[in-house]
Structure prediction request, 154 residues.
Amino acid sequence: MADKDAVEKLLWSIALPGLGQLLNEKYIKGIVLIFLELLVNVQGNLNKIILLSFHGDIEKAIQQAYYQWLMFYPCLYFFAMWDAFKNAGGAKSRFAFLPFVFAAYFMTIGTIYSSKLTLFDVLLGPIWLPILCTILGLFVGFLLQGIIKKANHF
Prediction:
């Protein structure tokens, strides 16, 4: 189990990529990650599509989304979380990175298909489908982490 300090840095990185690095006193890395987050956020219209998605206007969110930029967000977001967590001492296992990697991968896949894929005839769009895919990615990452740990005990 990760210590409280690592979890705190992880949670700050969830709030804004780069904040965990600043708390870990990795100032240049933190500033670069914050800059990249803001760049991708603005260029991809992320805040606008979040707002539209929360209001249920999925078609308009899809129209406003600039997918060329949004494709960068999952890896940037999960790398910042992983890096802050690891540097704060949270990576006790050799395979602690797996949930972060698979969450980023599945979120990217969700972003790719978010303008077309429906679940139960509902178009979820560029926010809700990637979030659901992230949950699936975390599940797969933790499952693989557990399987590998168990296999290494024998």
Q: What stands out?
A: The longest helix spans residues 125-152.
